[in-house]
Every structure is written in structure tokens, then in C-alpha cells.
Amino acid sequence: MSADETAAGTVRPGGRTARVRAAVLRAAGDALAEHGFDHLDLADIARRADVGKTTLYRRWRSPAGLVADLLMDMAEQSLPRTETGALLTDLRANARLVQRTLTDPRQGALFKAVIAAATCDPRTADALRRFYDIRIREWAPCVEQAVSRGEVPDGTDSHEVIRAVSAPLYYRLLISGDPLDVATADRAAEAAATAARGGAYVRGKMEVAH
Amino acid sequence: MSADETAAGTVRPGGRTARVRAAVLRAAGDALAEHGFDHLDLADIARRADVGKTTLYRRWRSPAGLVADLLMDMAEQSLPRTETGALLTDLRANARLVQRTLTDPRQGALFKAVIAAATCDPRTADALRRFYDIRIREWAPCVEQAVSRGEVPDGTDSHEVIRAVSAPLYYRLLISGDPLDVATADRAAEAAATAARGGAYVRGKMEVAH
């Protein structure tokens, strides 16, 4: 198996394959942010990345394959969690990271394009889910540490708390169009921390309530 | 001005214009749910609704115009709020209504299609915002009554509490793909109520914190 044929993510860093992948994913991200998923054209990406069309088709096969690899690369490149020693400030760091990403002109447009594509393309929907799974697993230990410190109740669903921090920010991006500023991020973190402390994310709790 | 030329929303209920509008919007909703916004074709809608193409083009002009009117109709037709006398149970009624809507096969597909279209069509984005403005204004009094009863602090942003109930449900629909069941709805309501009681949605608070 040649280096070109190894699966993305297992390539030797700094090799030709890694350089080709980086150039193609950068071009794919630019094209997505500019024109959306529906106008993603592998021949155009090959031109932008200065890579042979055959290489690109052989390795990524389809726009959905390319977007899946782009999301995997974004997950690998994305920042590690911040640990501040307290749940509220950890969640605030997470919320501000999401807020910065979604308000960055290129990244915000890219996420909108991928989320729109995921509503009708199952492969893109899977790739998007994998991206968020990785990000949620990265940040979940902040909540587990808060459980150990006794800040939030035993049995708190750490993944659900992390999702709760992001949800209001995506709601603004995709639905309400309200401003996505730092105050909004801080409020999302505070709401999630307050609800977690109050036991709203304890697993299995809702099934017995009322 | 003939009845056919009056603006949508001002027509005499039960008249021919209202019947035409109902048939066209039903057909538009079916087509959106089946094929998405990108494949919305006014000639196809006219056929499905058994309405002349000229009438349809004159009155709605474009797929975006048709979707805007469909969202206005959905907002007008949607259920009024439930008032139970306590914030948690009011918000739970709201969350369950959103959950039922988003998991209904036709309605869920329709919302996904419209939200995807709104990411790249400003007119659809405006129409979507107006739809949620109407729904949020309908439910906000539940929070205002909770303020009057002393359940949540003075200065609580009622609109933000209502958005917070919906946000985790839309996050699951569009992003994580996790199941959207009644327990999820109940948890979204409990988290929003707990955070509201703890003062997380008090206006202007975040600007002075830390």
C-alpha cells in the first residue's frame, strides 16, 4: 500500500500525503464557506489545491467523503479543554471557544454549510456527529471533575452538560439569528452550570419525576 | 382589488382565496418535507394544489416567498401556550409541544428543510426568525407570571428562557442526532427552569460578573 492509499488520519505527519491532504482540506473548507455544500465540486477543489484530479477522486471519492475528512481533521486540530478548577469557569472557556468558532467568518460559514448538508445527506450527518462526539468527549472531564469535587450531584450526565453549553449558541446561529456575542456565551455557560448544580442533568431522573 | 389580490393573512376566512392559499401551502409543505427547499418548484406545487400556475406565480413569486407565507401560516395555526400555574410544568408543556413537532415525520422534515434553506437564503432566514418570534412571544408570559409569583428573580429575560427550552431539542435534531424523546423534552424544561430560578437569565447580569 503506497503512502497515498493509506487512510486519512494514519499518514506520517509531514510526508507528501499529509501535505496533499492539508492543501485539499484547506481548499475544501474555503469552497464550503464560500459556496456551500451543494456547489462543492471536486474538480474545483483539485484546482484550488493544485493537486491532480485523479488523486483527489481516488482518495476522497465524493463531496461527502471530503467533508467527512475535513470534519475529522477539524476535530483533530481543535483546541484541548481548559481546566480552571471550577465548573462555571471551565464551561465558560468552552462556551467562548464555540462562540469564537461560530462567529469567525470562515468557520461560521463552514459550520452552517455542513449542518445544512447534514439535514439531507446521511454520510455528512454521521461525520458531523463524530466531530461533536470527539469535542464532547474532550470537554466532559470538566463535568466529571465537578462531580468529584462535589460541585454537581453524582450521576450527572457529563455529555449532556457539554451539549447544553453549545445548544443555545447553535440556536442563535441557525434559527433565531440573534447576536452571538461573548455575553451570550457566558450566559450559556452559567445556565448549564446552574442547571447542573441543581441536578437537572442527573441520569434517569426524569423517568421517575411526575 | 379582487379577493385574489389581497395580501396573504388579510383574506376573508373561508373565501376562495383562503381555500387556494390553504391548498398551495399544504402542497408546498408536502414538497418541502419530501424533497427539501432546493427542489421546490412552483409549477410542481401548482399541479399538486390544483391551482393555476399564473395565480401561484403572481401571489407568491418565488420558492422563498412561498416558504415565508407557509411559516406565517404555521405560526398562526400553532397551538396557544399552556398555563399550569408553575414554571416547570408550563415549560414542560412547551418542550413537549416542540418535541412532538420535531419528531412528526412531515413537520420534522419540513423544519429541517427550512432551517437548511435559511443558512443560505436571507429571505427564508427572516421568515424563520419571524416564526420563532411569534412562538416565543406566545410562551413568554409563562415566565413573566413566574416572575410575578416570585418563582424566578426580577429582571429574568423571558424570551431567553423560552429559547433555552427549545435549543437542546434543535441541537439534537440538527447536530447530534441523539434521540428526541419525551424524557429529552422534560430535561430541557427542567434545565431551563432550574437555571432561571438560579438567576442565570437575569438581564445585564453577565456584563458585571467576573
From TrEMBL, chains A, B:
Alphabetical list of PANTHER family matching this protein: HTH-TYPE TRANSCRIPTIONAL REGULATOR RUTR, TETR-FAMILY TRANSCRIPTIONAL REGULATOR
PROSITE patterns, alphabetized: HTH_TETR_2 (PS50977)
Keywords: DNA-binding, Transcription, Transcription regulation
Keyword Transcription in record: yes
DNA-binding region: 41-60
Gene Ontology MF term list: DNA-binding transcription factor activity; transcription cis-regulatory region binding
InterPro entries in the cross-refs: Homeodomain-like_sf (IPR009057), HTH-type_TetR-like_transc_reg (IPR050109), HTH_TetR (IPR001647), Tet_transcr_reg_TetR-rel_C_sf (IPR036271), TetR_C (IPR011075)
Protein's name in the database: Transcriptional regulator, TetR family
Lineage: Bacteria, Bacillati, Actinomycetota, Actinomycetes, Micromonosporales
Organism: Micromonospora echinospora
Residues of the HTH tetR-type domain: 18-78
Pfam family, one: TetR_N
